[in-house]
């Protein structure tokens, strides 16, 4: 049975996603010393069963976590190798050769921690709540394998929020293309939305260039 959401609640979803991306920008600046702007290219909704084809067969880096508090579910981010090289180079001040060295791998892990916690904390702050989560591990695998491994336990009536974004680094000619996938537990997510309106959300500044 497909997940049904009141169309009036889409404003809340957009507001939460804006908060997540804005907090990513703030986290990069405060924790990684990287001044940036997050541009949202597109925001879409797909069924979990379609995520594998949505990601494709290309080998990608990914980081995922399970949310231990409402809205529960899974958070996943993916990015191509080119983005991984840019991010590792930015964090370490070194150029990535054929393979990542240990320092670059550690930097990539730390940056994925910042991106993940930044996004989820942004949503939690806007909800005026906390969302407990683990530490993501970085993997490099074909996109379909990532989707199947990460979402194998997800209920098929779930809703997947897919965000295509570009992080522009202010002091460098660098852009990071990153996809965010938020797959909340359907029951918890609908219940949360049903008991909220936009006025319930903590006011936060909008990210520059955010079209939503």
**What's the story with the biggest beta sheet?**
6 strands, antiparallel
| Beta strand % | 15-25%
* Classification by helices and strands: alpha+beta
Task: Count the DSSP helices.
Answer: 6
Walk me through this protein's architecture.
The structure is a single chain. By secondary structure, this protein is of the alpha+beta class. It contains six helices and six strands. It has helices spanning 10-32, 51-55, 81-92, 102-127, 143-151, 186-194; strands at residues 36-46, 59-66, 74-79, 137-142, 160-169, 174-183. It has a six-stranded antiparallel beta sheet with strand order 1-5-6-3-2-4. Residues 204-212 have low confidence and may be disordered.
SSE diagram, text form:
Blueprint lengths: L9 H23 L3 E11 L4 H5 L3 E8 L7 E6 L1 H12 L9 H26 L9 E6 H9 L8 E10 L4 E10 L2 H9 L18
Antiparallel strand pairs: 1-5, 2-3, 2-4, 3-6, 5-6
Helix pairs in contact: 1-4, 3-4
List keywords for this structure.
24% strand, 6 strands, alpha+beta, disordered C terminus, 212 residues, six-stranded antiparallel β-sheet
Q: In short, what is this structure?
A:
The protein is of the alpha+beta class.
